[in-house]
Amino acid sequence: MHQKTTLDNGLRLVTTTMPQTRSVSICIYIGVGSRYETDAEGGVSHFIEHLLFKGTDKRPTARDISGAIEGVGGIFNGGTDKEITLYWCKMPQTHFALALDVLADIVLHSKFDPAEIEKERHVIIEEINMSLDFPPQRVNMLIDELLWPNQPMGRDIAGTKESVSTITRDAMLAYMRNQYQPENVVVAVAGNIKHPQVIAAVESVFGDWHSQQPRRSYPPYQEQPAEPMLIETRQTEQVQLCLALPGLSLFDPKRYTLDLLNVILGEGMSSRLFTEIRDNLGLAYSIESHIDHHLDTGSMVVYAGVDPRNLEKAVGAIMAQLAQMRQGVSAAELTKARQLASGRMLLRMEDSRNVAGWLGGQEVLTGRIVTVDRIVAIINAITAAQLQELAEELIVDKRLRLALVGPVTKPERLEQLLKF
Prior knowledge:
- The chain contains 16 helices and 11 strands.
- By secondary structure, the protein is an alpha+beta fold.
- The strands form 2 sheets. Strands 1-2-6-3-5-4 form a 6-stranded mixed sheet, with helices on both faces.
């Protein structure tokens, strides 16, 4: 069970008490990510996230910030995605007040020192270079370009080297003032602590924070014509591939059905893809599928790394598995998938960091929190007929997109394989 309080300034606080733990985890979610950026601003959300760990008036250096947390055994980090930015910390319960003070300090009082900005600019460009040099990550960037062409959703979260090179300090601060506003923030806390105690602590550090201007929203998703295939030729030992389909949004009532469909297709070593492509055919070491749900769009992506000589065979085998999903699933397979999906979700909820993320992520994106028990009930009610109906609706060859990184020599033959 969770409790929720909205402060007078609009900031939302959600908590779950876990008396069996010795820890407390705090997640501060900001409802902004790379899809809110213009092309010229590309990467600014991620750049800001980096800089918030570089110094405040109270803790002038990055080492002062990290030392405050690590000095008492805590762990902390941040992350930027397409629609959210996160700052989190997990601490021994006795140091909850310190953890909250540090997180509030970096969110509200970071200095954005010009010298630190220039150093971090180079760090982020090296991060982009690393992503470009790493084929498994690069192919996931390319599949986003195919799924969301000419849209912020299709751009790398870190931006481009060109955009990161030109973002100014003033532009960062203006963007932050526009998006880092209390009504766009959720503080989620889970662990051995009570809700009233958390309310008092959060009000003490965030209560005087007020919005100064209307927030800028993101451009809504619009389906656009896209090329079926995108290839980046490289002389590598493997070809990395992503075969994707548009999926469902966070608000689509069928999203849990698609999640369960994905469990059967490519989650875990007993999935259809792993069993056929790796175990039976020996075509890949890495093979899996995953689902992403966003505010108004989504995706279903199959990823694999294969020998270039086996590329066509592997794509054909993956296509065969997608086609079989349209033919339905057995009662035994459905039961196993339900238990796998429910069981892994329940196991994640043993950790205070995961529980805080569960609460905060849902609240900041959708404004509502679906309980674990409710989702288990939804999963257990999904029928084989519903799975087949959704597979027939979504798994359509004209919607397929294929991205490849590696020594691809006969792309026209691959394109012919993208048909059922």
